[in-house]
Amino acid sequence: MIELKNTVKKFDDYTALDNIDLKIETGTAFGLLGSNGAGKSTILRLLSGIYSAEGGEILMDGEPVFDNVKNKQRVFFINDETVQFGNFTLEKLKNYYKGYYPNFSEEIFESLRKRVNLPLDRKITTFSKGMKRQAIVIIGLACCTDYLLLDEAFDGLDPTMRIIVKKMLVDAMIDRNLTTIISSHNLKEINELCDTACLIHSGKVVFSRDIDSVKGSIHKVQVVFPKNSDGTPVEYTKEHFAERGLDILSFERSQSIYYVIARGDEETVREAFMPEQPVLLEVIPLTLEEIFIYELEVLGYDSSDINPEK
Fold it and tell me: Does domain 2-208 have CATH number 1.10.8.50?
């Protein structure tokens, strides 16, 4: 397991991470979600041992990562940039990483390379963006590490390339219980690939939970109440239902219909409205995008940089 305990990372006077606490279980597909500058890439660089922290601990199975060769050999970090590989051919890049990762598999490398038909002897600078991404993902998977870290791995790829790269990752996760940590501000990618998601904003963890439990913890309700004896609608306030212990994130009314976003399991949310004997009460599932946006807005954060599709 990977643990960050009270982790602080600063760049001069700027605090990139402010007392972060995170646990990432072995075999998890873990999504780091947040807007640009939230701290996602900083976490990945700490986990790969590129950065050292100013405070707290970064542990891999109980041992520190920074200046620990044994643990660094268990991690492969795929940056969002590939310019540093430009003058390598794929053959030379393979041999370069093979010297650092003792579990490197020629068999896996060649199998994946043939699947996408990447040339061995052309300089990577001549590759398209999609081919460059494929190349470094193939190298990363062939290194056979326990942990694979990806920073905006699908950014700028066309749909076909996205599918190919995702298929490679999913196969590795299934075949050898690979722990994958994916940084993105694209909610769709996190929802498709990850079983756990962590929302980071301004260097702090907003929440870190199993995605299925996140989806089951917030509900949207459409409710219509009986009218007064004179035919006028009864007016209710957010505070009226909050007094019953309902954790309301959003409360709006349009004519006779109330639209309420509330935390809690479905039964609890329903019961909060039943004393008013509603004429109509419908609980509507929220998308992951909607849940994250409501969570951010309640905390006073700007959700405009969280992109569901990109």
Answer: no
